[in-house]
Amino acid sequence: MNSSETPHSEHFYKGLDYFNRGFYYECHDLWEEIWGEAKGKQKVFYQALIMVAVSLYHFGNENPEGALSCHSKALTEFKKLPGCFLGLNIHELMSKLDEFYAGIRVETELTKEQLSKPRPRIQLEETP
Hints:
The protein has helices at residues 10-20, 24-37, 40-60, 64-78, 90-101, 112-115, and strands at residues 84-85, 88-89. It is mainly α and 128 residues long. The protein has a single domain (10-115), classed as TTHA0068-like (Hyaluronidase domain-like), CATH 1.10.3450.10. A two-stranded antiparallel ribbon has the order 1-2.
């Protein structure tokens, strides 16, 4: 890959912008298009990111069961990948997500304090 190339498509970066602005449904739609074409570990990578977006979408809709289920699925997929993959520090993101979901339980309603917590953001470590 030469210096003008990036490991992701334009759709990925648009989805990343949506994700970091809290538009998880729109992000999920864009990343699903990429996931459908991906192969091997890249397919696992995009699937995990989609599950993270869906998890936070459920959380925002006060659905802790859906949020925790998708969070668990994302972590399972991320564990199939190296600690850093395609510019993403997966261990760091997993840690942020675990911290975000700490104390959240399926059987209890989300509190105002929990709902107002800042959402995790995704920051890539790509080098120019």
